[in-house]
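can u do me a favor
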């Protein structure tokens, strides 16, 4: 008998199949960030920002993990400390006995069939991707040092509040708000924080806003593919077991995404006369986001309806409302507000309509279903939940950024903004296309200010470097 067999014999709560599924789905979600969103960002941005954009995601993934095990997990899933927050403290997995022990969520009185180490890692990858999504709105001008400070602060003072309130047994959970896999906790939170933060940080350089063509569409598509298939773990892992509900969640996720992508593409053809691969990726993302709060709760036909809605309503938000004077004042680089805040809120509200009684029972939800079951009160609860998440992020995010701005600049210098990656990291994404060493030397000199002319502008040899 192996040592693991002896341990299993003393832990009757452990289901090795569920544990294997949970670790697998956690890995899928982790791959959505690293390398998924890293390469998506690196491909979809202007060439001069490829390294910086990927690095923001790379750093966030690492920083969130350390904060998560040291204090943020317990604030999100630990003993209740306030109606919207768990008691801060190090997760029990920092000791080997705690890591091997049974995973529980005390505030919701939930016992799980896998160890605490699995639960801590599974929930970490969701926390990490939330910060990675926020980065998509700040790309192209945020000071990397300010980003390094922002990540642990936002995780601590915003993510934990939303997470505990809805998933950790807090007041919204007790009310019966439905959020199967993070339409509110992750996407609505990320989108509202990103949009508010973009307002505080300010816009990119005008020439970057006017000319921000993707530098590598195949690389962007590689990231998009990792996002799509990684979402099987994103939504398939949240029943916390390898049961029938997980299969329903995976199928509905893919059905809604396909419907959304095609709807977005058709609208592009009708109004812009051409199908756009970038537009199709936006439709893919909104489809993944909209089904997330109801993935295992709705029927297949409901997933199709939600996909059509997510391919059209966020399309209008981005291509009609997003072109208005008010929206253009806020530089949301990759449109995170439209693809995550709008789609996340839409998904939460539609879950309040299309959630089935059977789906809620399979998920062990407190709700009996949505409007189609006669429970229209669920739609009201979803509205309250969405308002709370928006309010938290609209208040907390600016406070954090203004505070950080008192310590370090929120934005890169104008000289660094002209250069991009070579200036802020001393590296270039595609150095083999040009004399990379010369560009990096010029960037370093420009950053020091020694090549700025009397008007505070870089000379032509630097401004001529293509982004």
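np, heres the sequence
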């Amino acid at each position: 008998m192996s040592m693991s067999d002896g341990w299993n014999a003393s832990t009757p709560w452990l289901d090795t199949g569920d544990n294997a599924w949970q670790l697998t789905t956690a890995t899928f979600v982790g791959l959505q960030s690293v390398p998924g969103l890293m390469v998506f960002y690196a491909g979809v941005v202007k060439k001069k920002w490829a390294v910086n954009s990927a690095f923001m995601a790379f750093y966030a993934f690492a920083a969130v993990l350390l904060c998560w095990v040291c204090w943020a997990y317990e604030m999100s899933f630990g003993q209740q400390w306030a109606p919207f927050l768990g008691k801060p403290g190090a997760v029990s997995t920092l000791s080997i006995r705690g890591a091997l022990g049974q995973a529980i969520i005390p505030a919701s009185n939930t016992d799980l069939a896998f160890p605490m180490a699995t639960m801590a890692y599974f929930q970490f990858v969701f926390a990490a991707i939330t910060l990675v999504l926020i980065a998509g709105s700040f790309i192209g001008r945020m000071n990397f040092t300010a980003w390094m400070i922002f990540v642990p602060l936002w995780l601590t003072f915003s993510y934990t509040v939303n997470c505990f309130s809805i998933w950790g047994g807090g007041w919204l959970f007790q009310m019966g708000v439905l959020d199967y896999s993070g339409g509110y906790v992750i996407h609505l939170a990320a989108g509202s924080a990103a949009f508010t933060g973009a307002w505080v940080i300010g816009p990119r350089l005008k020439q970057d806003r006017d000319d921000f063509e993707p530098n590598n569409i195949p690389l962007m598509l590689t990231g998009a593919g990792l996002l799509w298939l990684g979402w099987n773990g994103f939504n398939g892992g949240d029943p916390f077991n390898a049961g029938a509900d997980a299969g329903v969640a995976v199928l509905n996720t893919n059905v809604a995404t396909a419907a959304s992508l095609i709807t977005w593409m058709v609208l592009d053809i009708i109004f812009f006369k051409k199908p756009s691969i970038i537009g199709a990726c936006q439709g893919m993302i909104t489809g993944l986001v909209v089904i997330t709060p109801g993935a295992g709760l709705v029927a297949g036909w409901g997933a199709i309806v939600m996909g059509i809605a997510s391919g059209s309503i966020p399309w209008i938000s981005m291509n009609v409302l997003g072109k208005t004077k008010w929206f253009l004042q806020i530089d949301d680089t990759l449109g995170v507000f439209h693809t995550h805040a709008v789609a996340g809120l839409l998904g939460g509200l539609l879950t309040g309509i299309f959630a089935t009684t059977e789906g809620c029972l399979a998920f062990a939800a407190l709700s009996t279903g949505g409007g189609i079951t006669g429970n229209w009160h669920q739609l009201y609860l979803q509205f309250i939940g969405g308002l709370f998440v928006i309010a938290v992020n609209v208040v907390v995010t600016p406070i954090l950024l203004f505070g950080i701005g008192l310590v370090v600049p929120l934005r890169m210098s104008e000289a660094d903004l002209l250069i991009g990656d070579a200036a802020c990291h001393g590296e270039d994404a595609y150095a083999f296309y040009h004399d990379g060493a010369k560009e990096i030397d010029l960037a370093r000199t420009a950053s020091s200010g020694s090549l700025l002319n009397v008007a505070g502008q870089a000379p032509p040899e630097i401004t001529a470097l293509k982004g």
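Residues 214 and 390 are 30 Å apart (CA to CA). hope that helps!!
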